[in-house]
Structures are given as structure tokens and as C-alpha cells.
Automatic annotation (TrEMBL):
Name of this chain's protein: Peptidase A1 domain-containing protein
Family stated for the protein in its record: Belongs to the peptidase A1 family.
InterPro entries the record matches: Aspartic_peptidase_AS (IPR001969), Pepsin-like_plant (IPR034161), PEPTIDASE_A1 (IPR033121), Peptidase_aspartic_dom_sf (IPR021109), Plant_Aspart_Prot_A1 (IPR051708), TAXi_C (IPR032799), TAXi_N (IPR032861)
Entry's Gene Ontology BP terms: proteolysis
Species of the source: Linum tenue
UniProt-listed Pfam families: TAXi_C (PF14541), TAXi_N (PF14543)
């Protein structure tokens, strides 16, 4: 997503991630920065950038959420955050003006002062050079969604373009009233809040149908909730499910795929792969959430790992279950944090819809 930081506004391209909270970007001076295509943000060039002091209630309150700590001689509150793929970012906690583009009203851009951000001086892992950092959209106190608070009424949505889209196609992110997902074809399921893990958006997945075969889903509950069993995460590629469920799912898919030969993943990561092409036909697959049936397309179920190979975009994992971003492509996915609902609407995300 495109945001700007500082005064004057400095453009940032960041990855929107519903599975984390912190807003951070790579910052000069770089102790260890990954290569990015755009220029790196320089705090010294912004008149509104201000670090958070070590001896402050703000630094103390962020300790659990973003791993804030104090070790430097300059008295600046620091942070360290890591992600599921072992990527990490370290740097300074600061407050800064964040500017977003607007599609409503007379102003094309809206600035929000004193937003808590991370200024990353040591960042490494699997980050793409197309992005400068991450915008956390989770439910924690420092996420963009929470910090925008009353400005957006607890509503946001995104529409992820499929991996097969043209290079110039971009995913969209909306806030406030323009983020409401409505009309024909909308499927809505309850969000299940868990105070012990406020970052995550948790729902209940009841089953997945492959053709006429319905496979019950019995994932472990997330956190202390009694019924939520899967996290919806825009920052995770694959859908992670328990190993026994994955075995049943892949077997059902394999028995119903036609028109193509099985092959192997050239990267040895995924287990059920086929020669890709127009002859590959996959069965209809539906995710049955509580109160919401979401029909998936082939692009939601299979991911191209090379020009000639497509693999099932699910992975067996006995830790936490995650509904990943491949399954969400070409849907408007709407979050209403006041009503505690999550909505899906099939949409061509390469087209503008507002």
C-alpha cells in the first residue's frame, strides 16, 4: 500500500499485514537494511519526526506488543519484531505524521499527526525490494487501524489482485464508509475477539468442500477463545491447516483433478503439484465459515510456483491455522470491528470499484 511519512511527505510503499500491528519502514542510517527499489526514509529530513524516550509510559506500554526496550546510550525507546518466516526488524520507536490518499471529500490526501511508527535500522529476511516496510493492520494498539480509530469507525477492507494479474495491477485498501462490503454475493461470518491475542482476526471454519465431499475442520482454538479456530492473515501466502486435515483435503483434490499430470515442486516446498496450463481442471472448493460459504476459484486453491508448475496452496501445520492471502485474492474482504464481522465478496480486484 502507498502511504507517506513525515513533513514534507515522503512516499513509502509498504506491505499491508493483518497479522501484525507495528507500522515500520526502513530508515537511514542503515545498520543492516535489505535492498529496496525506492529511496530510504531519512528521519533527519522530516520536521515532525520525534523519537519516543526510554523513560516514558509510551515506551513501557509497548513492551509486550512490539518488544520495546531500552539499551542505547541516546535514551531512545527501541523495538525488535520478528515474523513467522524469521524475517525481522529492529530500530527506534517514534511518532510521525502519516498521510493517506483519499477517495472522498475535497482533499486528495489526509494527514494524521503523531502516529506511532517503527524506524527500522536493522531489517532482514524475505522482504521484497518493492516494499519499504510493513503496515500492521491487526487489532493491537499501535496498528494503523487502531490508531486511526474514530476516523474510520472500525471499518477497513482490501481487495488483493491475483498473482496472475498484470504487473501494473495493484491491490486496494479502503478505510471508513468506503470500506463497507455490501451487495449481492456477500458472505459474512463473525469475528471472534480474544483479549489475550488482540492482534489476530480469528473466525470459525467449520468445513471445506471439495466437489461433493465435505471435510469437517477441527483446527485448534486460537488463544483463549472457545470457538475461533483459524486466523485470517493478509501477510501469509499459503493457508495453513492441521496435518490430518491437509491429508484429507489433498487426497480429495487429487482424486478429482483432471486434464494434467502430477509433477513435483521444483523448490520442494509443496506436496501436491501439477503441470500448469489451460487443460488443468480442479474441482469446486468451498470454505464453510460459520454462517458464510465462500466459493473459491482455482487461483485461490492453486499457486504457480514456476511457469509450468502449479501446486495446492495449502500446507499441513500442527501449530496455528491461518487463512492465507492466496485464498483471499479477487475478494473484497471487509472488516467491521464494531459489529465484529468479516465479509467476503467475489470481486475482480484488478478493476476500480469506487
Amino acid at each position: 500500500m502507498n502511504i507517506s511519512l513525515g513533513t514534507p511527505p515522503f512516499p513509502i510503499v509498504a506491505i499491508a499485514d493483518t497479522g501484525s500491528d507495528l507500522i515500520w519502514t526502513q530508515c537511514k542510517p542503515c545498520t543492516n537494511c535489505y535492498k529496496q527499489n525506492a529511496a530510504v526514509f531519512s528521519p533527519n529530513s522530516s520536521s515532525t519526526y520525534k523519537t519516543v524516550p526510554c523513560q516514558s509510559s509510551a515506551c513501557d506500554s509497548l513492551q509486550i506488543e512490539v518488544g520495546s526496550y531500552c539499551s542505547s546510550n541516546d535514551g531512545v525507546c527501541q523495538y525488535e519484531a520478528s515474523y513467522g518466516d524469521q524475517s525481522h526488524t529492529k530500530g527506534d520507536i517514534a511518532v510521525e505524521t502519516l498521510t493517506l490518499g483519499s477517495t472522498v471529500g475535497p482533499r486528495r490526501h489526509v494527514a494524521f499527526p503523531k502516529m506511532v511508527i517503527g524506524c527500522g535500522h536493522d531489517n532482514a529476511g524475505t522482504f521484497s525490494p518493492k516494499g519499504s516496510g510493513i503496515v500492521g493492520l491487526g487489532g493491537g494498539s499501535v496498528s494503523l487501524v487502531t490508531q486511526l480509530g474514530p476516523h474510520i469507525g472500525g471499518k477497513f477492507s482490501y481487495c488483493l489482485v491475483p498473482s496472475s494479474a498484470a504487473a501494473e495491477a495493484t491491490s486496494t485498501l479502503s478505510f471508513g464508509q468506503s470500506a463497507v462490503v455490501s451487495g449481492n454475493g456477500v458472505a459474512t461470518t463473525p469475528l471472534i475477539p480474544d483479549p489475550s491475542q488482540p492482534t489476530f482476526y480469528v473466525v470459525q471454519l467449520e468445513a471445506v468442500s471439495v466437489g461433493s465431499k465435505k471435510i469437517p475442520f477441527h483446527g485448534s482454538t486460537v488463544g483463549e477463545t472457545s470457538s475461533g479456530n483459524i486466523i485470517v492473515d493478509s501477510g501469509t501466502t499459503l493457508t495453513l491447516v492441521p496435518t490430518d486435515f491437509f491429508t484429507q483435503l489433498s487426497s480429495a483434490v487429487e482424486s478429482q483433478v483432471t486434464g494434467s499430470n502430477k509433477t513435483t515442486d521444483p523448490f520442494n516446498n509443496l506436496s501436491l503439484c501439477y503441470e500448469s496450463g489451460p487443460k488443468l481442471k480442479v474441482p469446486s472448493i468451498t470454505a464453510h465459515f460459520k454462517g458464510a460459504d465462500v466459493a473459491l476459484t482455482m487461483e485461490n486453491v492453486f499457486i504457480k510456483v514456476s511457469d509450468t508448475v502449479a501446486c495446492l496452496a495449502f500446507y499441513g501445520n500442527d501449530d496455528v491455522s491461518i487463512y492465507g492471502n492466496v485464498a483471499q485474492q479477487n475478494f473484497r474482504v471487509g472488516y467491521d470491528l464494531q459489529k465484529h464481522t468479516l465479509s467476503f465478496k467475489p470481486t475482480d480486484c484488478t478493476q476500480k470499484f469506487f
